[in-house]
Amino acid sequence: MTAVRDFEYRDLISPLPRGAARPKWSVMIPAYNCARFLAATLESVLAQDPGPAQMQIEVVDDCSSDDPQSVLKEIGRNRVGFFHQPQNLGHIGNFHTCLDRAQGELVHLLHGDDVVRPGFYELLGRGFDADPGTGAAFCRAIFIDAHGQELSIPPVMQSSPGRLENAAVRLALEQHIMTPSIVVRRAVYEELGAFDRRLKCSEDWEMWVRIASQFPVWYEPQALALYRMHPQSNTGRHIRSAEDMAYTRMAIDIFKAYLPTELADDVAASARRTYALSALETARRLFGAGEWAACLAQMSEAFRFDPSLKTIGRMLQLVARQGGRIVHPG
């Protein structure tokens, strides 16, 4: 499938020189105005640090207006590298810098507001050791709020560690992988390119399906990563405009081409129905917060995902439960 290696919208990741001494791990921490969370992120990595010969740890800052360097001075103890972008690139551009600067065989993109639990690197590393063909390994991620309180945890996809069978299709049906919960061979990024520049949200989902369509993926059922949800996160910034859902639709359209032809239409349709429901649930929460315009935007996206009578019925039920006030907020 040539679409998988179409580099029109992806930056190339250049291979490193052959024979160069390389660590096993690169923990690359993209950061933008998240200094208040960065200490917890760094501490969670440093607690598992096997030393600089085995692990590169670097913060890549996208011109933050807060002061991430002060956190590095306090927590990093000269162990953590720091790269400051000369200008703000946005998170896709900053991700590319992270991948390009990574020196290790295995790359872990860990947002500067997320956390890993003890055992993350040991257990995910086993997936690459057990199967040399493994392109990526991931675990479950616990969703937490800005204060670190647990919000939810997804169910297991399989009960024991091992290769995830039929991975591309299963990962295309719904977003199961949060970025801090996955590790990818650098050679895979070199072959498939960086994140798709067309996507401001769901760029990670497109990437994981792209990888799974070409390489074996290892699954660890333990929840070893914490994914922080807060209004200033990338997804949080796009919810009120419903751009989060618009980009999710675009991601589905893009990765549909990576799937087996005989399954692609059904898988894409199922994913759209799933996220129509997700948009309606978000609309319900926004209504409860009194955010009428954002509620309407999410409802509109639900219809674009799945313009069926069932979706229309659910939308009417939502409006009816709220006494029509979504349409007539005055």
Which tags fit this structure?
330 residues, 16% strand, globular
Verbal overview:
- Helices cover 43% and strands 16% of the residues.
- It is of the alpha/beta class and 330 residues long.
- It contains twelve helices and ten strands.
- Strands 1, 2, 3, 4, 5, 6, 7, 8, 9 and 10 form a ten-stranded mixed β-sheet that branches.
Give a short synopsis of this structure.
The chain is α/β, with parallel strands linked by helices and 330 residues long.
List the helices and strands and how they pair.
Blueprint: E1 25-31, H1 35-46, E2 55-61, H2 68-76, E3 81-84, H3 90-101, E4 106-109, E5 115-116, H4 120-130, E6 136-144, E7 150-152, E8 162-163, H5 167-173, E9 182-185, H6 186-192, H7 203-212, E10 217-228, H8 234-238, H9 243-255, H10 261-288, H11 292-305, H12 309-321
Parallel strand pairs: 1-2, 1-4, 2-3, 6-10
Antiparallel strand pairs: 4-9, 5-10, 6-7, 6-9, 8-10
